[in-house]
Write a structure and sequence with these properties.
The structure is a single chain. By secondary structure, the protein is α+β, with helices and mostly antiparallel strands. The chain is built from 3 helices and 6 strands; from the N terminus they run H-H-E-E-H-E-E-E-E. A 4-stranded antiparallel β-sheet has the order 3-4-5-6, covered by helices on one side. Strand 4 and strand 5 form a beta hairpin. The relative contact order is 0.23.
Amino acid sequence: MNTKDPKFIALQFNEYINARGIDGLSNLMTENHTFIDTGNGVNTGKEHMTIGWKEFFENYPDYKNIFVKVESQDNFVTILGHATCSNEEFFNGQFLWSAKIENDLVAE
């Protein structure tokens, strides 16, 4: 059960992404956290994803998400916005993200 608004958790998670705050990201993930990328690749596990985020930040040091619209229904959050990154054209453009929040942590 969530004690905080799921939108708040998703926004906080994104703040850590934009600030390259690996400890904050890790602290907001469930142990069985699942990340699904734009190619439907699935990565599972807090430890695995913490390492993955570290590598991502090393490869894309100026990557940022800019959220325009954030909505939630129960524990599911949808986010509309865009991303920017100077060294990877793929990351420049509009995106639709989603997050599943469980016990005030990002599960997916």
